[in-house]
Amino acid sequence: MTETIDQTPHTARQADPFPVKGMDAVVFAVGNAKQAAHYYATAFGMQLVAYSGPETGSRETASYVLVSGGARFVFTSVIKATTDHGRFLAQHVAEHGDGVVDLAIEVPDARAAYAYALEHGATGLEEPREVKDEHGTVVLAAIATYGQTKHTLVERTGYEGPYLPGYTAAKPIVAPPAKRFFQAIDHCVGNVELGKMDEWVGFYNNVMGFTNMKEFVGDDIATEYSALMSKVVADGTRKVKFPLNEPAIAKKKSQIDEYLEFYGGPGVQHIALATNDIVASVQAMRAAGVEFLDTPDSYYDTLGEWVGETRVPIETLRELKILADRDEDGYLLQIFTKPVQDRPTVFFEMIERHGSLGFGKGNFKALFEAIEREQERRGNL
């Protein structure tokens, strides 16, 4: 296995050619946005803050905006497709099931970011435009990335509305939990076809000025049956991190192969959510019906020997099936949900970091074996 770490300081790089302020939103196209919003409010503890639909003048789509700390999800479904945009969303759900259509990034200058991206090889989808309402002005532009996913570049400096012009403030669906389940989006993982990972790594290097943060290849990211390769790109501040996976040749179908088959091509595989208390989060989410991957007790028998002391006792990790990993910077705790829709595609990760900048390298084998057990149950291994 090879692991490389970019030594760029974890502060904004001077003269950053493509500065970003962070993730603005993860936008999902879903079959029923009303029901999706309820699920994420009740099971993920998120709060509905904004809405767009027929009541606000949107005759084609309905969208619900939910937040948890700095994390923002938008769920959009088609009411009646009458434009190319509506037809695209309807077709996307038909072909891919519920999935991510947009990893929106907040930038200080959307026009400059869009111009830089196009100059360095990006495909433009939406030229910069201003949208306004009584809360201020937002500048939006969009570029294409892997599959049918896009990056909307959002400049919202000074905008004080609940989300974007065209949205109205909305009341919470359920009472807020006593404690947030998560505070931010830690990273968003994309799955691409065999042989395409380096191409998309190069895209982020060239088009956005992202640097290579980590790389995982070789036997340590494989089990007896399946394997994959992964590289992580990030902006200079490490606020936006995009791991990119591709399948590797192995005896049986890997989790990446399964995703590509059932999603119908490349797309966002999972979203990692940063929490300050993974124990409380997992307990609350399990009680609300979220299913997490199981981990055999044998994993925990020797965990303390190599991971060392953690905030959460080993027995509590064992009870809740939470994984732990340590690197040169500290340690992390993590757990993965099962797919959150009928297709074995999009899932989530809960992650609690204590210094570690990694992605759970020491857990890859245990994680992949857990995923393989689920693949076998589905008949897809």
Automatic annotation (TrEMBL):
Q: Which GO terms describe its biological process?
A: L-tyrosine catabolic process
Q: Report the EC number(s), separated by commas if there are several.
A: 1.13.11.27
Iron keyword on record? yes
State where Fe cation binds: H187, H270, E349
Per its UniProt record, the required cofactor names are: Fe cation
User: Where in the numbering of this chain does the VOC domain appear?
Assistant: 22-156, 184-338
One GO term in the molecular function aspect is:
metal ion binding
The free-text cofactor remark is: Binds 1 Fe cation per subunit.
Instruction: List UniProt keywords, sorted A-Z.
Output: Dioxygenase, Iron, Metal-binding, Oxidoreductase, Pyruvate, Repeat
- Which family does the entry's similarity section mention? Belongs to the 4HPPD family.
What PANTHER family would the database entry show?
4-HYDROXYPHENYLPYRUVATE DIOXYGENASE
- In Swiss-Prot or TrEMBL terms, this protein is called 4-hydroxyphenylpyruvate dioxygenase
Give the organism, scientific name: Streptomyces palmae
Which gene holds the coding sequence for this protein?
A: hppD
